[in-house]
Amino acid sequence: MSKDVEEIASAYESWFGPPVTVIRGRTGAEPPPIGVVHRVPVGKELDDPVANVTLLGTLGASSAGVVQGLARELAFEVRGTLDEPAIRANAEALADLAEVPLRTGRAFAVHDLLTNLSLPAFPGFDTALLVDWDPVDGFTFLPPFENIGLLRVLPLLPSEVAHIEGFADRGEGYLSLVNRGMDEVDPTREPTL
Predict the structure, then answer these.
(1) Sign (positive or negative) of CA dihedral 36, 43, 139, 115
(2) Residues 131, 111: Cα–Cα separation, whole Å
(3) pLDDT tens-digit profile of 141-186?
(4) Alpha helices by DSSP H, 105-169
């Protein structure tokens, strides 16, 4: 694992806390693979339905330049604890998604709608929006990693996509859904609208 990737893994741990495991990207992939960090719910979080979420985030997307003009990692959370096969399948799906700009030569941008998405933790969701992890104040990791931010890969249902597309600024559409009670981490949620 490169020094940059180790530092980004430490940045995740400093913000989201232990334990963190690193899932290495596929070997021999072209372009170079992007790894994924996995945070497991621990202790009392398992009994707290709000806190019991699993986080998966990329390791290396920020240095690979997958987001236009910004050093950003991509991540998503899902309610509950995933078993090992589900962790692996979701990590591979997230790494594949992060590698799309490297294969196509077209970087992602904040508030891009991603179609034909497949995240195993979110069956039935085939579209996602890229939003800042903290859409109000912005998100960057703690020093010395404050130059790296985090974008949420937010799976959306068709009616939620239509709602967001009705806004001139997709970020405002997203915040409208949050204000209406959208539970971003629930893969079984009903449409917010």
Answers:
(1) positive
(2) 6
(3) 988 889 999 999 999 999 999 999 999 999 999 999 999 999 999 9
(4) 158-165
Distances (CA, A) of 11 to 4, 5, 71, 105: 10, 10, 13, 27
Q: pLDDT tens digit string along 49-84?
A: 667 888 999 988 998 899 999 999 999 999 988 888
What H or E segment, with its residue span, contains residue 90? helix 84-104
Split at pLDDT 50, 70, 90, the class of 33 is low
Residue 6: its H or E element: helix 3-16
State the pLDDT at residue 153: 97
**How close are the terminal C-alpha atoms of the chain, in Å?**
44
> Is the alpha carbon torsion for 160, 34, 91, 70 positive or negative?
negative
Which residue is it, tokens 């992602």? 108
The radius of gyration of the chain's CA atoms, rounded to the nearest angstrom, is 16
Q: Name 162's Cβ contacts closer than 8 Å, sequence gap at least 6.
A: none
